[in-house]
Amino acid sequence: MSESKKVYHLILKPETGDKLQQMLDDLKNESKFLKMNITKLCEWIIDNYQNKYYQKEKQRIIEDHFNQKEFLKDALGGLSADEDVFKKIQDLINKTKNTNGNRVEKVKNDIS
Q1: How far apart are CA 70 and CA 85, in angstroms?
Q2: CA end-to-end span of the chain, whole Å?
């Protein structure tokens, strides 16, 4: 039975592509009978990572790639009055970090 495949094109930073190529070269140097190319190596790395490490690293991935701009856009969406915007920002600051009055006053002064 033929396996159906979806095609994905990845764009890697040059240094990431170089690392991938180094890994493939190293594997081929270790075994002259290795039947592998960049695509198969990527598949193996992704499958292995997903099976062994993804659940452990998921929260760190989310934290490392948190989009503050989109978060604020979403949180402030639908507000119309300046007072509502300030109150919403103040609430967000209080919820997301342990703040003191100085930070809230700075935001208030920046908005005014």
Answers
A1: 16
A2: 67
Dist. CA 66–CA 69, nearest whole Å: 9
Distances (CA, A) of 44 to 2, 38, 51: 19, 10, 11
> If 0-12 CB within 10 Å is exposed, 13-18 middle and 19+ buried, where does residue 112 land?
exposed
As a whole number, the mean pLDDT across the chain is 81
Q: What is the pTM of this model?
A: 0.62
**Residue ranges of domains in the chain:** 14-64, 68-111
Report pLDDT digits (tens) over 3-49: 788 889 999 999 999 999 999 999 999 998 999 999 999 999 999 99
